[in-house]
Write a structure and sequence with these properties.
With 462 residues, the chain is an alpha/beta fold. It has helices at 3-24, 28-50, 58-78, 84-109, 118-145, 160-179, 185-203, 211-233, 236-259, 264-268, 293-301, 312-317, 320-332, 351-358, 369-372, 394-397, 448-461, and strands spanning 305-310, 336-341, 366-368, 381-385, 416-421, 441-445. It has a six-stranded parallel beta sheet with strand order 3-2-1-4-5-6. The longest helix has 28 residues, at 118-145. The radius of gyration is 25 Å and the shape is globular.
Length: 462
């Protein structure tokens, strides 16, 4: 078997492992295995690529792999679960940035794509624009999630969209001049810089509550840019891997946007959320009713059904194991316990699923929004643990609220509600939650993990 045939065979094996590994990511029980299978596939694809004749300077390749491993592995191991969304945004951005740099290198090595087929120039410039947008946009998303930047929309008002359009036109104009034969490197730099500014200006006006969708969208863009670069380089592995990432990211983005009852163009045009606004001022009784761990335990111990609603506050407190212990205690007393999972609870897609799977919560107890919403009216107690915007009735009732129209968990239909929270601060969308002032709602203030542990101890004593 000659080397070219061997490379193609290895690529086919790698693609099969990519797809098989992706299938494993559909459920928590198989996700780890699926991730390892896909990683093995990527390793095989890298080896196959290195076997291509004339691949390049092996010393630099090995040095790059070593540097990436030394930085990436410890960083990934040390990251907390609450910071995984930031890590995903950052790592995704690095992929887009790498594609943009490769496009620049190809431009320089080919003397401005001189004597290259038109599709190579077009694919490379597409990859440069999209990769640059993805890199800089992902860095802004990282800054918002890490709270280095305000979670609220940051923009220039009515001039925002015209400015974004101008930046896009500048980038496309420079790219068109390059394709038509102008080999000036300043034009290529113009493509990269204008796309970079566009990436920043697109994500800055998007509020914190839309960040899960933004991360997914940027991930899809990175995949598309990688596929385009693979087309320009005639690298089958890059094309297939990029298309898988782009397609899966696009599907996930669309599903999440639908779950929030919002269109992707509306989100990109400047989403809701972010720490400044409060929507329409809340009317009616503004009394907050406090409860204690013992009272909460009594309520739940004598309930027929309890629904636990996890949110970002549970992730921050790392309370998932304590929640599982409390649920086990309730089930031992004959109480049916379910977990209500909103598709955008937390800071990234599947955030709550991952946390609860880590605590070995049975997967059949995790109920998606459409399924669990039918159960709240038959539920004695709903316990909300650090979830804000996804339980706010204003999304259904207040047309002036920035989250109006977003599907929520119908927690307010339960017979009683217990909210575990540190204080009365609003959620990531920056709006007050009317649920907290509902007469049937009581607040148990404090660290979620400590509060759940206290409730569990009280349950043991009953």
């Amino acid at each position: 078997m000659n080397r070219d045939v061997l490379v193609q065979v290895l690529y086919i094996v790698a693609f099969a492992l990519f797809i098989y590994g992706l299938m494993g990511l559909t459920g928590p029980r198989t996700a780890v295995r699926g991730n390892w299978i896909a990683a093995v596939g990527m390793g095989i694809a890298v080896i196959a690529t290195l076997l291509i004749p004339g691949m390049g300077n092996w010393a630099l390749i090995v040095l790059g792999v070593v540097i990436g491993t030394v930085i990436g592995v410890p960083a990934a191991k040390r990251v907390k679960m609450t910071a995984v969304p930031q890590m995903v945004a950052l790592f995704n951005g690095v992929g887009g940035g790498a594609v943009a740099l490769i496009a620049w290198v190809e431009f320089r090595q080919s003397a401005g794509f001189d004597h290259e087929p038109a599709y190579v120039a077009v694919a490379s410039l597409f990859a440069a624009i999209v990769g640059s947008v993805s890199f800089w946009g992902s860095n802004i998303a990282f800054g918002k999630l890490q709270e280095l930047l305000s979670g609220r929309p940051i923009g220039i008002g009515t001039l925002q969209q015209p400015l974004n359009l101008v930046l896009l036109l500048v980038s496309l104009t420079c790219a068109t001049l390059v394709v038509t034969g102008n080999g000036s490197e300043w034009l290529m730099i113009g493509v990269l810089v204008s796309a970079a500014v566009l990436g920043v200006m697109v994500v800055l006006p998007i509020g914190g509550a839309d960040m899960p969708v933004v991360i997914s969208l940027l991930n899809a863009l990175t995949g598309l840019s990688a596929a385009a670069m693979g087309l320009a380089l005639d690298n089958t592995a890059l094309i297939v891997a990029g298309m898988i990432v782009g397609a899966s990211g696009s599907i996930l983005t669309n599903l999440m946007a639908k779950a929030m009852n919002r269109s992707i163009p509306a989100i990109v045009a400047g989403g809701f959320g972010g720490g400044g606004g409060t929507g329409t001022a809340l009317t009616g009784d503004q009394t907050v009713r406090r409860t204690s761990a013992s009272d909460a335990a009594i309520q739940m111990a004598f309930a027929n059904q309890v629904i636990i609603v996890p949110g970002y506050g549970m992730a921050v407190a790392q309370a998932q194991h304590a929640v599982r212990e409390m649920a086990d205690m309730l089930e031992a007393k004959g109480v049916s316990v379910y977990y209500a999972i909103h598709p955008v609870a937390g800071r990234m897609p599947g955030h709550m699923n991952v946390l609860l799977a880590e605590a070995d919560v049975p997967y059949d107890r995790l109920k998606e929004m459409d399924e669990i919403n039918r159960e709240f009216s038959r539920t004695d107690v709903a316990m909300v643990i650090g979830a804000n915007d996804v339980t706010n009735p204003a999304a259904r009732t207040d047309q002036d609220s920035p989250i109006y129209g977003m599907p929520i968990l119908n927690v307010d239909e339960s017979r009683s509600v217990i909210v575990l929270k540190r204080g009365m601060a609003p959620g990531f969308a920056g709006v007050d939650n009317a649920l907290y002032f509902d007469p049937k709602t009581t607040m148990l203030f404090g660290d979620a993990k400590a509060s759940v542990a206290d409730v569990t101890e009280e349950l043991k004593a009953l």
